[in-house]
Design goal:
Layout: H1 2-14, H2 26-34, E1 42-49, H3 55-69, E2 75-82, E3 89-96, H4 99-106, H5 109-121, E4 127-131
Antiparallel strand pairs: 1-3, 1-4, 2-3
Length: about 140
């Protein structure tokens, strides 16, 4: 069952077609379910365990994507952090102006390329946590 869930997540990550009724990327559609108001800013932490020996390649792929992502209108913050105790674990910190900003990002060529590359680097399913600011 766990392998099926991982496979399903990877398929959703690399899909570049909208499957939701709102024409949202699968990841954005999942985020929408967690947001009270998709028009307001939100933060996403993604914890990723990388396959042994693939850490440098994962970092390079992410940093390449980050340069283009930081130029996008809908992004407020986009960075990678590596666990000091577990160097195979990374936490991605993303802050978006709104759900449309994230959805636009997920459909841009640099992001599509990164999501396709993830299948070669990731060990297990990434864990997504969504946060909103109090009062938002």
């Amino acid at each position: 069952m766990c392998r099926f869930a991982t496979l399903a997540l990877v398929i959703a990550l690399v899909a570049n077609t909208a499957i939701a009724a709102d024409d949202l990327h699968p990841i954005a559609a999942d985020m929408k379910k967690k947001l009270k108001d998709p028009a307001k800013p939100f933060t996403v932490f993604v914890t990723v365990k990388v396959k042994a020996g693939k850490e440098a390649a994962f970092e390079a792929a992410f940093l390449g994507c980050a340069k283009d992502t930081l130029k996008e209108k809908g992004v407020l913050r986009y960075e990678i952090n590596r666990d000091a105790d577990h160097p195979e674990v990374f936490v991605l910190y993303e802050k978006w102006k709104n759900l449309d900003g994230l959805n636009d990002h997920l459909n841009l060529p640099h992001t599509v390329k990164l999501l396709k590359e993830l299948a070669d680097y990731v060990d297990g399913a990434p864990v997504f946590k969504v946060y909103t600011a109090p009062g938002e």
